[in-house]
Give the backbone structure.
Amino acid sequence: MELSLCYLLITALVFTSALRNKSIATSEVLLNEIISGQDDSLKWLAELCDDFGPRKTGSESLEKAIDWVMESLRASGFEVHSEPVPGLPNWIRGEDTAYIIEPRKHKLNILAIDGSPPGLVEGEVVVIRDKEELQNKTVKGKIVVTAQNWTDYPNALKYRKLAKEVAKRGGLALLAKSATPLLPHSGRLFDQ
């Protein structure tokens, strides 16, 4: 929630020409102004998310979103320019599938984390319920599945960071429980 509010506040500060001449004493005042609909920040945020969707590094949707942001800022009276950044990776999502094959075949609802390599991984599964349990399990040649209790988003993100440790210990893959409780959530690998 804190991260979402941060993005919302940043968007409001950058895109809202109506607010640029006002002195905002506190973030609460700014948030109330956004929520009350007295400016266009929510409309612009919705347009950015709805019209361009995911904006992964190096993707066409990111380039189109940057062009739209530049045009929107100029139309609002800002003097802005963009700068090229050569050599950015562009990971393209393929079809993400995973199955439990024993004791019966069952398809899992998954999304690969950005940057995941392509290919088939098949192996025995080791389940861990907390980060410390990884240290006490033999994971070499196995797929590590996290089954931590849901507490909050930041805590769930910690399990994604275990990919490096699983690889160091010879694990085949990490299947991390989604950072959102009901739908698969794609993020990015950390220091991988």
User: Anything to note?
Assistant: The longest strand covers residues 125-128. Residues 98-175 form one domain. Helices lie at 2-15, 27-35, 41-52, 60-75, 131-135, 153-160, 163-168. The chain has a mean pLDDT of 79.
